Amino acid sequence: MLELQYELESKAAKWYATIDIANAFFSIPLAAECRPQFAFTWRGVQYTWNRLPQGWKHSPTICHGLIQAALEKGEAPEHLQYIDDIIVWGNTAAEVFEKGEKIIHILLKAGFAIKQSKVKGPAREIQFLVVKWQDGRWQIPTEVINKITAMSPLTSKKETQAFLGAIGFWRMRIPEYSQIVSPLYLVTHKKNDFHWGPEQQQAFAQIKQEIAHAVALGPVRTGPDVKNVLYSAARNNGLSWSLWQKVPGETRGRPLGFWSRSYRGSEANYTPTEKEILAAYEGVQAASEVTGTEAQLLLAPRLPLLGWMFKGKVPSTHHATDATWSKWIALVTQRAHTRNPNRPGILEIITNWP
Which residues does the UniProt record annotate as the domain Reverse transcriptase (predicted)? Predict the structure, then answer.
């Protein structure tokens, strides 16, 4: 689903419309020879499904594939699809309306049902896959913010896990997310008794504030004047990196995403340089998913790193394995070489975080 959001972010559209197919699974008949495997008994009577049942693990994949095939056969206009949810976009309401009408016609012809109440737009602002979209930027819907910020302090591991699940989807909008919520994860560990102390309360209050003030991400812009700036840093309790885009006239630019995580296993024992390289390595991976592998990255770590990568040699003092160093070197050097020999894929500046 994240890949769909990255792609939609790159469209920077002005108008949107969404289509949610009604009872999509039940619109798909099961072949007679397949029905016995879906037999069940209820109150002493045996039944079997004759339509694709909800709850079967393969139903979403089958449903998505059949809808996709119908849209391709009907030569549907540009759109994005996630199972039975579809979104179209454009620069005018009329353009979006026409695209939506054509897709609805294709789906009806293929035997799927469309309820008018399930069609939204054309609109400048719309909700698709939980996310609110406007001008190619994705943000947290107001109702989600209100629900999270209204929550009372948590009283059990189960409540804490549910809260972390609710906010985790939005972590790309929260700088230093992993570091902020680490006290909450601590009380969910099986070996730990649940104890809601001052650290947990502070983390709980802080993350709710971060959710309430989270910035919109995107849109992803392209062109020779666009600068993709990747800030990365390794701190005592984990790694952080963020991706920004700047165009002429912008001082700070617009954020495309914030990432963070705690150290895993032996990573906490890495040298300071290795930790910074690890942060940059994972940052380059994340940035490439958002902007593509051909867009130039301006890498802004806290220590000079590219020199180590281009040497292609593991330093004499190191804690990461040779295989890990080889992995770092391979990714960064490969990303640095694009099809344009006059435009390197990665440049480096040493700077403070924005």
Answer: 1-168
CA distance readout (Å), 147 to 141, 143, 154, 165, 176: 10, 6, 14, 13, 22
What CATH number matches the domain at 227-348, 3.10.20.370, 1.25.10.10, 3.40.50.10420, 2.40.160.10? 3.10.20.370
Q: Where in the chain is the domain with CATH 3.30.70.270?
A: 2-138
The matching CATH number, chosen from 3.30.70.260, 3.30.470.20, 3.30.360.10, 3.30.70.270, for 2-138 is 3.30.70.270
CA dihedral of residues 54, 55, 61, 67 (deg, nearest 10): 10
> What CATH fold (topology level) applies to the domain 142-212?
Alpha-Beta Plaits (3.30.70)
pLDDT at residue number 62 = 95
pLDDT for the residue numbered 196 = 95
253 pLDDT more than 60: yes
**Residues 126-141: pLDDT tens digits?**
999 889 999 888 899 9
Kind of pairing, strands 119-123 and 346-348? unpaired
In single-letter form, the type of residue at position 120 comes to K
Angle at 100 between CA 66 and CA 219, to 5 degrees: 95
Determine the average pLDDT of the residues in 313-336: 87
Amino acid at 15: W
Q: Which helix (H) or strand (E) holds 80?
A: strand 80-82
Q: Is 56 strand, coil or helix?
A: coil
DSSP notation for 138-206 = EE--HHHHHHHHTPPPP-SHHHHHHHHHHHHTTGGGSTTHHHHHHHHHHTTSTTSPP---HHHHHHHHH
pLDDT in tens, 227-249: 999 999 998 889 999 999 988 88
The answer for residues whose C-beta is within 8 angstroms of residue 209's C-beta and 6 or more apart is none
147 Cα distance to chain centroid: 21
Sheet containing 131-134: order of strands: 125-128, 131-134, 137-139
Q: How much is the pLDDT for 87?
A: 96
pTM: 0.84
What are the C-alpha distances in Å from 261 to residues 272, 291, 327? 16, 21, 19
